[in-house]
Specification:
The chain starts with 10 loop residues before the first helix and ends with a helix. Helix content is 26%, strand content 22%. The chain is globular. Helix 7 runs parallel beside helix 8 and helix 8 packs parallel to helix 9. It is built from ten helices and 15 strands. It is of the alpha/beta class. The longest helix has 23 residues. This is Lysophospholipase L1. Pfam families: GxDLY, Lipase_GDSL_3.
Length: 368
């Protein structure tokens, strides 16, 4: 064997396009996005607690330990503003380093950037950094023309953010972003798939894709492996004001069909007690690749689909006209097995297909 064949390959050293870009700019002004005119979306208790956290730190109802920890993951969070900056850099302090074997650090711990207004948002770039670090500084863009742009920065999906700072050139002006079509929020409760596992970058989680198509604030309440439909979560979620729609997408974590038959109606009734007219959309889970080889998995999915369908039908028979069911088994399309990283968790392609299927459904519900 030749000596050079024994050396490990380091593509970052060999490919200049993969190297981490340094700002080299000491003339930046640094801003906290917690201050005006920046707008932060996706954290239901931000104004009270000033934390990048998806649930309250001291709720009236006891949180499961795992959910309490996962609430620190910042999935669905967004920083929105308008600026004529020629350069944009972020400083980030995470609660930990990238540690997942099947999800890139860019999706787990990175921010990505979209430029443009509603319906015209275009992906620009993702933070590139040393994934072994819990603190990093990353250039989003520099040497841009001096013109006004609407910026959306998507928070990491699978790590917590203690601090984030926005660095702009000293001559940059900052303004508030355009308003949403409505102050009412889309709330999505679910599993690791809801949380965004395993998107390559934050903007490709299906809730973030949908937020670029529907001009509303989305709250991502996906809790990886722990979206089990506990009544405590129903009570806490029902405290979120101004809901436009509640989406329940937690079949994949429901533990058992028997328990699902109990938790789903109970969750809906708890939520209905405070929000009798808010639309509720119940989604059955996507197909898994291994179902082709395991009939029991297909049978189980069919049983749980019927649980959800019957629950919705029973509610409608009782006079609830604002509850809907959607069969999620069709979301990934005919080649569903090509849309995941591990047979379960979608890749960016899978999430794009999910958003393509769900967007018109949600748009119709909101229009009605």
């Amino acid at each position: 064997m030749m000596p050079n064949q024994q050396r490990p390959v380091n593509a970052v050293q060999l490919d200049a396009n993969m190297r981490i870009q340094q700002s080299g700019d000491n003339h930046l002004n640094w801003y906290s996005p917690l201050e005006k005119p920046f707008h932060i979306a996706g954290f239901g208790w931000l104004h009270e607690e000033r934390l990048y956290r998806r649930l309250p730190t001291k709720p009236d109802w006891k949180l499961p330990v795992a959910v309490d920890q996962l609430a620190n993951c910042t999935a669905g969070g967004q920083i929105r503003f308008e600026t004529n900056a020629t350069s944009l850099t972020v400083k980030v302090k995470l609660t930990g380093t990238a540690n997942m074997y099947h999800m890139p650090a860019t999706g787990q711990c990175g921010f990505d950037c979209y430029i443009g207004g509603q319906g015209e948002q275009f992906y620009y770039g993702t933070t590139v950094y040393d994934h072994t670090l819990a603190e990093y500084e990353a250039v989003i863009f520099k040497d841009m023309a001096r013109e006004s742009r609407i910026i959306t920065l998507n928070f990491p999906l699978y790590q917590g953010v203690e601090e984030v700072w926005i660095g702009l050139d000293q001559e940059a002006q900052i303004d508030s972003p355009p308003s949403y079509d409505s102050s009412k929020k889309i709330i999505v409760y679910g599993t690791s798939i809801t949380q965004g596992g395993c998107a390559a970058r934050p903007g490709m989680a299906y809730t973030n894709i949908m937020s670029r198509r529907i001009n509303r604030e989305f709250l991502n309440l996906g809790f990886s492996g722990n979206g089990k439909g506990e009544p405590e979560l129903a009570h806490i979620i029902s405290d979120i004001p101004n809901p436009a729609c509640l989406i329940l997408d937690y079949e994949a974590n429901c533990v058992s069909t028997e328990l699902f038959q109990k938790t789903l109606p109970e969750f809906i009734l708890i939520y209905r007690d405070k929000h009798p007219l808010t639309p509720i959309l119940v989604i059955s889970r996507i197909t898994y690749a291994k179902e082709k080889f395991h009939d029991q998995m297909v049978k189980e999915r069919a049983e749980r689909k019927q649980v959800q369908l019957r629950t919705v039908e029973q509610q409608r028979e009782l006079g609830d006209a604002n509850i809907y069911f959607y069969d999620g088994s069709n979301l990934l399309g005919e080649e569903a097995h090509e849309c995941t990283v591990d047979g379960v968790h979608p890749t960016d392609l899978g999430f794009l297909r999910m958003a393509d299927g769900l967007t018109p459904v949600l748009q119709k519900i909101l229009a009605d």
